[in-house]
Amino acid sequence: MANTTYDYSKLLGLIRERRLTQDRVAEMISISPSSMNQKLGNKRSFKQDEIILMCEALSIPYSEIPEYFFCR
User: Fold this and answer.
1) How far is C-alpha 53 from the geometric centre of its chain's CA atoms?
2) Would you place residue 44 in the very low, low, confident or very high pLDDT band (cuts 50, 70, 90)?
3) Cα–Cα distance measured from residue 31 to residue 3, given in angstroms and rounded to the nearest whole number
4) Residues 8, 12, 64, 34: what is their CA dihedral angle, to the nearest 10 degrees?
5) Residue 4 has what pLDDT?
6) What is the DSSP track for the chain?
7) Which of 18, 28, 45, 52 is in Cβ range 3.0-4.6 Å of 1 for a Cys bridge?
8) Cα 7 versus chain centre, distance
9) What are the structural domain ranges in the chain?
């Protein structure tokens, strides 16, 4: 993820709105809590399959993926 920083505030807000934690969402998509933290902190990139799983877990329509995962 070369020098690209994304704003995950809308995604984090949705996680809180759903009364979930980052750790719980990480568990739901089968990644470690530290990996989730690194992804939300722009230290690692989300993989395509992780984005799809998060959409399913959080009821995010696929048409809204850019709003949650690719905001700068």
Assistant:
1) 9
2) very high
3) 23
4) 70
5) 84
6) -TT-----HHHHHHHHHTT--HHHHHHHTT--HHHHHHHHTTSSPPPHHHHHHHHHHHT--GGGHHHHHS--
7) 45
8) 10
9) 9-69
CATH superfamily of 9-69: lambda repressor-like DNA-binding domains (1.10.260.40)
Radius of gyration of the chain (CA): 11
Write the single-letter amino acid at 21: T
Amino acid at 42: N
Amino acid sitting at position 7: D
Separation of alpha carbons 50 and 23, rounded Å: 14
Which one-letter amino acid corresponds to residue 26?
A: A
pTM score: 0.89
Q: Please name the amino acid found at residue 32.
A: S
